[in-house]
Here is the input.
Amino acid sequence: MSIVVQKFGGTSVTAEENIINVARKVIKTRSSGKDVVVVVSAMGKTTNTLLEMAHRINPNPYKRELDMLTSTGEQVSIALLTMAIQAQGYDAISFTGNQVGILTDNAYTKAKIIDIKKDRILKELSDGKIVVVAGFQGVTEDGEITTLGRGGSDTTAVALAAALKAEYCEIFTDVDGVFTADPNVVPEARKLHVVSYEEMLEMSSSGAKVLQLRSVEFGRMYKVLIHVRSTFNDEQGTWVIEEDERMEKAIISGVTYDKNQAKVTIYGLPDVPGIAARVFQTLADANINVDMIIQNVSKGEHSDISFTVDKEDLNQTLEVMGKVQNDLGATSVDFDKDIAKVSLVGAGMRTNPGVAASMFTALAESKINIEMISTSPIKISCVIRRDEVEKAIKSIHQKFELQKDMRSDEYVKRMK
Here is the structure.
């Protein structure tokens, strides 16, 4: 039988009745003649609750202990879901990430999967069982428990689908799919029926919360067919696939935003070759991801560098930059937490000039100032004031008329 991987997020298993509903969905897939591997997140806001408790006890907890703590949420979910499946007459077994051999590096709180030992899962499937796996977690070669970062259950699911050569991977969540914008901000936002891996990568990296970035990277690398859909209805969602010449290539697929950004500026760096490399190598050594970067024009043999990081990395970034300031003789370090990033994503940008000008015009017409800009062949991102995000998203969405359906009916039909 072919294998299907199904992932259910925290909102899908918030209470007992939700868990029973998930069990029914899993059994329906199993009854259709497919082997099923289920990946489950912690119930509701369990992870947030555990993190809040940890920071009340210790404002600066060790990351190893955070992983030890937050990995417990998924263990509750997998046990309860397995019991619900068994109560409906189907054989099932639950496993932690450690038990199924999801091996990671040792970057606590944002570890990367380096290998999956699939033999145990395959044995249980061959015995006719539904296998339920804890998302979000893994183990190092030294036996240390790690977690994969927020949304890490998505990565667990797609990585398992790749390792098991699954027919497809379904990501069940509380939204109907991937939209042209956040429907909570833009009510007329339209669900995308099909989106390419490349576009989804850019959307995930720009703030779209529907899929974790690394899960899309796994999907693209191993050609895993991903279906993002709602737990709470049976409608088709959004298929994430390899770009196909038969797909309708809309100029723009969506507009995203990320309020979880902070800007850091280091002033008065010596304007000599190799300085930028030293700054960003130091950040890389601390496992801090940098997004947008701007280096100002040299003044009097000195220059300034500004860059953005996730807010959760800000304190560590400032600590690292303090050392860089001393080592390189910079004059000062400053930060700004009241920023946000808005991004426009679309494969059609490659062949359609004027997209950037239209985006900037939309922001200008809304009296929104742009502080930083970065581009790729299919994405344009701007840093703006945090309190202007909703106005910016609505303005850009309207400017590009993203509420209009640009789907390829042929491709949607083939996906059904």
Observations:
- The longest strand covers residues 261-270.
- The radius of gyration is 23 Å.
- The longest helix spans residues 16-31.
